[in-house]
Amino acid sequence: MYGFEAMTFNIHGGYLEAIVRGYRSGLLTAADYNNLCQCETLDDIKMHLSATEYGPYLQNEPSPLHTTTIVEKCTLKLVDEYKHMLTQATEPLSTFLEYIRYGHMIDNVVLIVTGTLHERDVQELLEKCHPLGMFDSIATLAVAQNMRELYRLVLVDTPLAPYFSECITSEDLDDMNIEIMRNTLYKAYLEDFYRFCQKLGGATSEIMSDLLAFEADRRAVNITINSIGTELTRDDRRKLYSNFGLLYPYGHEELAVCEDIDQVRGAMEKYPPYQSIFSKLSYGESQMLDKAFYEEEVKRLCLAFEQQFHYAVFFAYMRLREQEIRNLMWISECVAQNQKARVHDSVVFIF
Amino acid sequence: AAFDGGWKMEYIDNLPSMDLMRSEKMTLVQLIIPVESAHRAVSYLGQLGLLQFRDLNDDKSPFQRTFVNQVKRCAEMSRKLRFFKDQIHKAGLMPSPNPASQPDIELEELEMQLADHEHELIEMNANSDKLQQTYNELLEFKMVLQKAGDFLVSSGGHAAAQETELDENIPINDDYADSASLLEQEMRPGPSNQSGVRFISGIICKSKVMRFERMLFRTTRGNMLFNQAQADDQIMDPVSNETVEKTVFVVFFSGEQARTKILKICEAFGANCYPVPEDTTKRRQITREVLSRLSELETTLEAGLRHRDKALTSIGFHLTKWMTVVSREKAVYDSLNMLNFDVTKKCLVGEGWCPIFAKTKIQEALQRATFDSNSQIGVIFHVMDSIESPPTYFRTNHFTNPYQEIVDAYGYVAPCVHQINANVAKYQEANPAVYTIITFPFLFAVMFGDWGHGICLLLGALYLVSREKKLGSQKLGSFMEMLFGGRYVLLLMSLFSIYCGLIYNEFFSVPFHIFGHSAYKCRDATCSDSRSIGLVKYRDAYPFGVDPSWRGSRSELPFLNSLKMKMSILFGLAQMNLGIILSYFNARYFSNSIDIKYQFVPQMIFLNSLFGYLSILIITKWCTGSQADLYHVMIYMFLSPFEDLGENQLFWGQGVILLLLALIAVPWMLFPKPFILKRLHTERFQGRTYGILGSSDMYNDEEPDSARQQHHEDFNFSEVFVHQMIHAIEFVLGAVSNTASYLRLWALSLAHSELSTVFYEKVLLLAWGYDNIIIRLVGLAVFAFATAFILLMMETLSAFLHALRLHWVEFQNKFYHGDGYKFKPFSFATLPDDDD
């Protein structure tokens, strides 16, 4: 029923859409970033943030601040907002919101498993986990020895269980396996999310397809670049790409055989939307690629707010806030380590 | 309408000044304060609260300003104070409401004190947390010992078949040494019996038991036995201060690998494991030990708690005082941050707005500051010229404040199109609040005319007014706050309702013979035809208000409708005329002759030639008792202006002349003003090729008011013209629609009287008709509820809203610009409370 969302959307989604748009207007602006970049100490950052929506979360922090505290408190605000929206949401919006956190769940699972492999303390690892990706039995991940156990003991109870079908092996866990597992899970997750959005139809599916396709393509490029020079075979690499997106299927064939960054570039420049990203980079360079991708993503996320009556605004808002927190983390780190010259290297302005 | 007739300009100019009519005269002042006395000077100004600082460092971010470190220190101190408050709240103590009188303390001293207190508190908290932790562990251990012991015994008793096997295999914790090592949760497996069944006992949150058991089952592939029992006592969680229900469990399993896994799971689930010796005597011995340590700890804990409470009480004694001190200091430094250093770095330069009457007070305060801080140089205070429009400041009191608020609230609802931050009256513009004080309650009462309901309102208002001191000092809910704030509005509203109710002769819709006897009587004794035919007049008219006998008679509704409708139009016209006359006073005040000639005069003519005429007809009809049909007169004035009006004729050519006047007034309003403005503009810039730099004084006071907005922009003729066109059309259409809008007075008044009639007749009288006490009581209750909630609350609200609209739209759009900004002096009294 494309085109008729306006008639019924507000019955269930209107309140939350208003809420999320209100939240969006609280995002830091370019002027805020300019001021933040001029800060001399972390206290200055706190002082500046206290005039923004982060104020109440930071005001009770005693004075010698750490970057981690700032990031933690800012994330806490995001989580509070997310929880508020989740408790107010009805189907299918609540499922949609749940989908947003699966990515963090995957990251957390990988974090814990890798950490246990390197014999880190579980509590310490738990503190590093993203609060959005927490689930009840996450601490028990440390018990598992291989993929099969991981699935059977812990993950079978979580929403991630269906994504595991492709990577159940009895092999013992090692770094390579875990990385493959992460990407397989992510692939399954993105495909599932994509299907779900298609099912929702209307503007939601239109905009979310675009955003998720971008996400899938970015992952494909990153997988390719990261796997250059490793023992991952071409077929295995091909298997990790999500089965949708602008690059699917021909771009994937090309990426699968790439042996260096310039070949990736060659493959990607055939796609007009990505041409602009790669045209900013000089040949042989891949450091700035992340930032270029982030900038492109932020641009697309902001565009999601131009249309009304769809769920993509929730996705876009969460992503934008996460980007903002990344920015804050980078700025705080630069300020804390006296590297102010590098402040602009990684900050992505949102508006 | 008291102004028509031969008044003289001089007479108007010599009227006594009305404080509320025009906002206070403001002036821009500059302060040059020596650094050493700056802090004191600013804090004295804060006590005075009559100077609004202008931010001279607008381009600097907060942390680049001069006194940022002090602001940071204040923020840090208020954080500590919040921490104390939180702690006091957690401990269930109340900060003492009346702050101890104590000499003023210096900020540095206070800072040190606060740091000490915080340090002390944190240490105490850490200690008591540690103790609580130990205490919890012991308590848990005790419970595990009790419950798990039961399991071990019963498993020995019940499972007879397994018993032999179990008995051999169950390990015995015989190397149990001391409880200290137990507290470190060190698991001591029994002497390993490789093939044997072993167990782990511990305690876990009740909410996690199910998942815990499932996880255990999965990991051991079902090769385990899980026993659980509800713990008797609840454990206090030290972090959230809440009690948590816990469950004691015992897991039986076999094999070394299973043990590691189970221990890992226990750790993951936050389950605390405690070893329980198999031997009953040993168990008893440990239980005794644990119990004795528990009681020991309990006393220690209590002592610690008492100590902390004492410390907190002593803090709470000063807390309120400290909080005000800190928030004032912060406000002072925030204000100091708005000042600039001069070139020599020895003085701070500040600018600000102050009302002219306050200049001497400010100077006195500054002198006092210089004196008190033993400064060599005094503060220099002088008046500056400004092209900026000054802020608007009305000095109000308890009585006038709510009316001013009613007027100011307009800006929030319908912000002016030209400026974004518009909300209060323009500087020195005529203030509608002066008239609102009487017209607002009066228009309300026209709609709410019932002296019974009026008395109810009056009682409420009197209650609020008489308890003013008490209610004013305490915190009220938002609804009560609103009622309390508007108590004087309520008072006048109720008085006017009683007055109007007496005129309408309504008392809960019952007419009363208060002012003598009715002039009418029925035609016969049964009075059966009063509805159909009417009454007979037999004596002089009823002296005041509506004749009580008319209630329910044939003439009641037609008479009241005709009266209220015509009355509404008369009131409306009077109020709109007042609005236009105020626009004259505004134009005169700002010396704007164009607005008088090309806006005020045609507007007066247009409105009065059509609706003023109607009003005169209405009054004439009332006075002469003429039977003329006013609809006919008004409609045919447009359709055939030359028709002979017969007995309606007041003067020759009545219809034609009035219609012509109205028609002439429209282009008069529309065309001349923009062209004259254009001419003035071109004259001013004639012969100048370049624009003028610093356009501070090129517009003198004779400058037309509307041109002020174009201070910094070019004169755009089409924009001015379109604006004028909108204005003229709005007025012409508004004259009709606003007059019609005043008919709401009639409609609401009718609705109110009909509603109260329904509740009185159809509920109360109907119920009274039955000779049954219960039905009567029910009827009375329904009537009381309907009166209280529908008539007194809902109707009051709706009449209030309609009166509000009549003032905001119909009255104020004739003259009120409302594009000023409010005077916000730096004052300690208005600092927000940190209470929330």
Description:
Chain A: Belongs to the V-ATPase V0D/AC39 subunit family. Chain A: Pfam families: vATP-synt_AC39. The complex is a heterodimer of chains A (351) and B (836). Chain A has 351 residues and is an all-alpha fold. Helices cover 65% and strands 0% of the residues of chain A. Chain A has 18 helices and no strands. Chain A has helices at 5-12, 14-24, 30-37, 42-49, 55-58, 67-88, 93-117, 122-128, 147-154, 175-200, 202-227, 234-240, 250-256, 261-268, 272-279, 289-304, 312-336, 343-346. In chain A, helix 1 (5-12) packs across helix 2 (14-24), helix 6 (67-88) packs antiparallel against helix 7 and helix 10 runs antiparallel to helix 11 (202-227). Chain A is globular. By secondary structure, chain B is an alpha+beta fold. Helices cover 57% and strands 7% of the residues of chain B. Chain B is extended and about 125 Å long. Mean pLDDT of chain B is 80; it is low at 1-8, 157-195, 413-422 and 694-713. In chain B, helix 2 (35-48) crosses helix 9 (280-336), helix 17 (556-589) runs antiparallel to helix 18 and helix 18 packs antiparallel against helix 20. The longest helix of chain B is centred in the middle third of the chain and has 57 residues, at 280-336. Chain A binds chain B through residues 35, 38-40, 43-44, 47-48, 50-51, 59-63, 122, 136-137, 139-140, 142-143, 152-154, 157, and chain B through 61-64, 68, 71-72, 75-76, 79, 82-83, 211, 215, 218-219, 261, 264-265, 267-270.
